[in-house]
Amino acid sequence: MTNITAVKEEKKPGLSIKTQASAALAAVAAAVVLPQLLHVFGAVSGLGTALGEIFLPMHLPVLLVGLLAGPYAGAAAGLLGPLTSFACSGMPGAAMLPFMMAELCIYGLTAGFLRNRNMKVFWKVAVAQLAGRAVRAAAILFAVFVLGNQRVPVSVIWVSLAAGIAGIVLQWTLLPFLVHRVENRVKDER
């Protein structure tokens, strides 16, 4: 006889479509504003866009909205955040835009699907990060080796991972704190 342990679901209140849409829009706005703030600091400090590549500011609101508002809000924010940012600022660059949209969509979707799972937020973030990075890597490999895309080198998979270590660690520390704060505040208001 096999013993299969299932991950239990937590009882979290369902959110209205209006609340999910509002959360997704707020995450999209944050996914546009946060990178721009880092680009300003980068310009002042002489680092240019490097701060965005290091701290991954677009990832934070997408993961957060997925963890708090669910998979639909997370996926929508992940798709629309980079697209809106590109429309407003030209960042991320056109060559990387579809890959970032795929990656962030999977971040938000995965974090959202894990929202009600009884596991530590750290692990929810780590699983979402792995899923998003895997999809991004697969999309880049497909674009290069199947479609013949020569604008994006395969090395960008590893280079961006190495450059973004600080941002990944920031997500591991900041997101559990933020989720805990928001969820406790919601419980206190009931």
Q: Summed up, what is this model?
A:
This protein has 190 residues and is mainly α. It contains eight helices and no strands. Helix content is 74%, strand content 0%.
The low-confidence runs, each spanning 5 or more residues with pLDDT under 50, are none
Strand content: under 5%
| Overall mean confidence score, pLDDT | 93
Helix tally equals 8
Task: Look at the helices and sheets and give the structural class.
Answer: mainly alpha
Number of strands: 0
Biggest sheet architecture: none
Helix content: over 70%
Shape field: globular
Cα-atom radius of gyration: 17 Å
SSE arrangement, N to C = HHHHHHHH
The CA-CA distance between the termini, in Å, is 44 Å
Description:
The protein is mainly α. It has helices at 17-45, 50-55, 59-69, 71-89, 97-113, 121-145, 156-163, 165-189. It is globular, with a radius of gyration of 17 Å.
